[in-house]
Amino acid sequence: MTPFHLYMAQRLSALVMAPFVLVHLGVMIYAIQGGLTAAEILGRTQGSAFWFLFYGMFVVAVSIHAALGLRVILSEWAGLRGTALNALSCAIGFGLLVLGARAVWAVTAGGVS
Q1: Angle at which helices 49-77 and 3-33 pack, to 10 degrees?
Q2: What are the angstrom distances between the C-alpha of 18 and each of 13, 23, 57, 68, 81?
Q3: How far is residue 3's CA from residue 1's CA, in Å, rounded to a whole number?
Q4: For FRET with 63, which of 5, 15, 39, 94 sits at 20 to 30 Å CA-CA?
């Protein structure tokens, strides 16, 4: 991908993330103001296809966005280029995706496997 395509991919991932962030913050404020416990929150999210899809898509967008942002930082600050830069950026993105997917699974399906 060209630098322009990577730039646009990061901007588009930010555009996708924005509504997820707003909904997530709104839900967190509602939960805190309502005095919900962690057990009550999990009781509402476990088994929910909606929350699975919502947070699953959120994790994908965050993984892409963060990996591309860190790619720029690694290039500018660490001087990485070429295959090393691409491999490390992909590994970071994949790692974030796996960790996020495990968290989504734990919150919506009730456990981490």
Answers
A1: 130
A2: 9, 9, 12, 17, 30
A3: 7
A4: 39
- One digit per residue, the tens of pLDDT, for the chain of length 113 reads 899 999 999 999 999 999 999 999 999 999 999 899 989 999 999 999 999 999 999 999 999 999 999 999 999 999 999 999 999 999 999 999 999 999 999 999 976 65
Contact assessment for residue 75 and residue 7, using Cβ atoms and an 8 Å cutoff: no
According to DSSP, residue 34 is labeled: T
Pick 3-108's CATH classification: 3.40.50.1820, 3.40.190.10, 1.20.1300.10, 3.90.1150.10. Answer: 1.20.1300.10
| Domain definitions of the chain by residue range | 3-108
Residues whose CB is less than 8 angstroms from the CB of residue 9 and which lie 6 or more positions away in sequence, other chains included? 1, 64, 68
For 9, the token pair is 């991919």
Cα separation, 61 vs 55, whole angstroms: 10
Amino acid identity, position 12? L
